[in-house]
């Protein structure tokens, strides 16, 4: 038997602009996780993913299915000619299509569980690169931030450079801070939001590049506040980032209502997180206000809230 797990994630600052080469900050969310267990079976390689109602032999899945593609690519990386004779059980407490990185977490856990099955420990860079390849199936043109924060399970500063290579720097967080994550309960495929923004950018590149650059400046200011141990300074930066995401058309009435409710309940700042249009928002709170903010979010329509502390 072998097993591995990977956390969820949220983007603190910089979503969407990160697809266009701007930096972004993301942190793991360890309250939720994807888990993969592999157990020996007499023959065949059977995949069980009860959360998505999947029960199938690997040989019956199309080659472009994200789980099948992840298994095949990992076997190649491990120089293994054949899949294990095994049952692969995939479970996850990360809500799907909500900006918490469920796809990338399942992939990273699957890659690590398979490597462990064959007695190997793939370097993080390899797990990250393989997970990124599968993210392309999920998202179309991902920046690579989701797979990176989930693979390293650390707060990260991420930027895709002009040559396509990722610049990945671990963030140090001298003063931990509290976030409440509020879920609109509306699944929102990141792929659609990303391709809509691409269309807007193609129609009016100078306007959208100005917005992306403004988001990039906020990301750099936020990194400084975090690394100087001044988390309260992030509040106004979050509010500004949310306004810029509204200008990119990726907010929604439900997200805006949650963001407003969090601010009214005493959050230092709040914004949508991830692809937008639905999914999750985040609110930065003084720790003593966390439960009041979470209750206000539920009253304003959040289907679920999670509290997490960002630290290193
Ligand atoms: O919806 P999520 O959390 O998977 O985040 C996507 C973040 C985007 O910047 C919108 C896309 C990307 O690939 O970075």
What structural keywords apply?
312 residues, alpha+beta, seven-stranded mixed sheet, four-stranded antiparallel sheet, 9 helices, 11 strands, 40% helix, 26% strand
Number of helices, where a helix is a run of at least 4 consecutive DSSP H or I residues: 9
Q: Which structural class is indicated by helix and strand composition?
A: alpha+beta
From the spread of the alpha carbons, the general shape counts as globular
Q: Cofactors and ligands present?
A: (3R)-3-hydroxy-3-methyl-5-(phosphonooxy)pentanoic acid
Assembly state of the chains shown:
single chain
**Rg computed from alpha carbons, rounded to a whole number of angstroms:** 19 Å
The SSE order reads EEEEHEHHHEEEHHHHEEHE
The low-confidence runs, each spanning 5 or more residues with pLDDT under 50, are none
Structure description:
This protein has 312 residues and is of the alpha+beta class. It has helices spanning 66-77, 102-117, 124-139, 145-152, 190-203, 205-227, 234-247, 253-264, 290-299, and strands at 2-13, 24-40, 45-49, 54-57, 86-92, 156-160, 166-170, 177-183, 269-273, 280-285, 304-310. The model has no long low-confidence stretch (mean pLDDT 96). It binds (3R)-3-hydroxy-3-methyl-5-(phosphonooxy)pentanoic acid. (3R)-3-hydroxy-3-methyl-5-(phosphonooxy)pentanoic acid binds at residues 11, 15-16, 18-19, 99, 101, 139, 142-143, 145-146, 190, 194, 274-275. (3R)-3-hydroxy-3-methyl-5-(phosphonooxy)pentanoic acid is lined by residues 11, 15-16, 18-19, 99, 101, 139, 142-143, 145-146, 190, 194, 274-275.
Give a nutshell description of this structure.
The chain has nine helices and eleven strands. The protein is an alpha+beta fold.
